[in-house]
Design brief:
The structure is a single chain. By secondary structure, the protein is an all-alpha fold. The protein has 2 domains: 84 residues, Orthogonal Bundle (Rna Polymerase Sigma Factor, Chain: A), CATH 1.10.1740; 150 residues, Butyryl-CoA Dehydrogenase, subunit A, domain 3, CATH 1.20.140. The protein is 71% helix and 0% strand. It has 12 helices and no strands. The longest helix has 25 residues.
């Protein structure tokens, strides 16, 4: 086969990869949309995701052991998140509340030696429990709060996916940071750990998780926000000890 024919064959293969995985872009877009404000349009996420898929098809090296879907999923999510973060539509008050809650959780847990409870965090912030829950909802709606924010892929939630060293992205999914994160997840209050598992592993949306736990979608949002903020608090401790 001459070089021109080989180039055309390679182009056909990449085009086929894009066509076969277009549905993956839509699935990831709708999953992300469940935790974004109404101002974010699914078509915008899909457009950004398609760019990530095209880049994945262009750069994928099938000889390194990873499946294309695994590689493309990371690139698609990353492209969507990058596009969202280019325009920061989050009010400054939400950023301030985010930092305040992290600090409050950290101080309460250092003082008590156990998981900080909602009421304790609210008292530390000198707000009512209703206002604290409202702050959690605003933080969750105002920005992406996910495993990606801790510097890893969502796949780190499922520990059995992290066995073996035949994937080219083991540096993302393995190492002391990922082990510390996996351990931190196991130390979360049971309900928070369940919400993270259902959200990232089972890919249920907030409404579906609410049906499983028999609580409102708003309450699931609060639990999810608090779980991620608690994880950020505990992973900050990891950074200072490394």
């Amino acid at each position: 086969m001459n070089s021109k024919a080989a180039a055309y064959r390679q182009l056909d293969d990449k085009t086929m990869l894009v066509e076969q995985h277009a549905s993956l872009v839509k699935r990831i877009a709708h999953h992300l949309l469940a935790r974004l404000p109404a101002s974010v349009l699914v078509d915008d996420l899909i457009q950004a995701g398609m760019i990530g898929l095209l880049e994945a098809a262009k750069n994928f090296d099938g000889t390194k052991g990873a499946s294309f879907e695994t590689y493309a999923g990371i690139r698609i999510r990353g492209s969507m998140l990058d596009d969202i973060r280019k325009g920061d539509w989050t009010p400054r008050s939400v950023h301030k509340n985010n930092r305040s809650i992290i600090e409050a959780i950290s101080q309460v847990e250092r003082a008590t030696g156990r998981d900080a409870r909602d009421l304790e965090v609210a008292e530390h912030l000198q707000v009512s429990i209703e206002d604290y829950h409202r702050m959690l909802n605003e933080v969750n709606a105002g920005r992406i709060i996910g495993i990606e924010d801790l510097g890893v892929s969502e796949d780190v939630i499922t520990t059995d996916k992290n066995s073996g060293n035949d994937e080219p992205y083991d540096d993302l999914l393995q190492g002391s940071f990922q082990k510390s994160l996996a351990h931190a997840i196991t130390t979360l209050p049971e309900r928070e750990a369940i919400v993270l598992s259902l959200y990232y592993d089972e890919e249920l949306n907030l409404r579906e998780i609410g049906e499983v736990l028999e609580v409102s979608e708003s309450r699931v949002s609060q639990i999810h926000s608090q779980a991620m903020l608690r994880l950020k608090t505990r992973m900050q401790s990891w950074r200072t000890t490394e």
